[in-house]
Structure formats: structure tokens, C-alpha cells
Amino acid sequence: MRRSRSRRIRKTVGQVLTGVGACALAVVLIFLLYLGITRGYDFGYRVFNEPPVSPGNGTIVEYTVEKGDGITSIARDLADKGLIRDPMIMVVQKLIYQYTIYPGEYSLSTAMSSMEILERIGTAPEKTEE
Questions:
Q1: Low pLDDT (below 50) residues in the chain
Q2: Are 90 and 114 in contact (CB under 8 A)?
């Protein structure tokens, strides 16, 4: 009788622990899903509505795009120079809008959004005669 009671207690405790573990796992999964959804929404929103780094006139920065530079390295450089906030936003924008990037020297401003910068470097610079 004592053995069967002990077995029932162990079985019940095991079932309770299994239920608690399943609930804890469900809570963790729901939290991760919530985090993924909110961060994904924020990123998607910023792809289409990323504001400039600074309002107003901003600071002019001369930037040179070399032949063969990829969008990832350009975006990192622009972020390092303080022209954009998030390089990944610019990479995704370039992929979505399929801009061609032309080598050349560009005057860019911190008052320009990443889309405006993409439009600027996606337009062949005017050739100056010397």
C-alpha cells in the first residue's frame, strides 16, 4: 500500500512538473514570437519611413563611391560618417527599389534620408570638364 501511494505521488509530481514545463515553454515561445513580430514591424516601418539623421540643413559630407563598391560596404561607411542610422535599412531599400549605384563623388547631407542618399548615388554624377 505504501509503495502504490509513493508511486502515485511520484507520478502526480511528474505530471505536474511536465505541465509546468510545457506552460513555461509556451510562455517563452509566445514572448519570442512577440519580440520577433514587434522588431520585424519596426524594421519594416523604418525601411519605408526612415527619417534623416538630423533635421534642418544638416552637415554636408563629401563621399566617394569607388568602382566595385558594394551596397553593404557603402552603407557601413555612410553609417560610420553619421549620414545614416542603420546600414541594413539602406541595404534592404536598395534591394527593394533596385537602385544602380554609380561611382563618383557626391555631396551628401545628414539632413537626407537613406532613400534620398540612395537616389543621389543612384544617379550618375555629372562629368565636369577641366
A1: 128-130
A2: yes
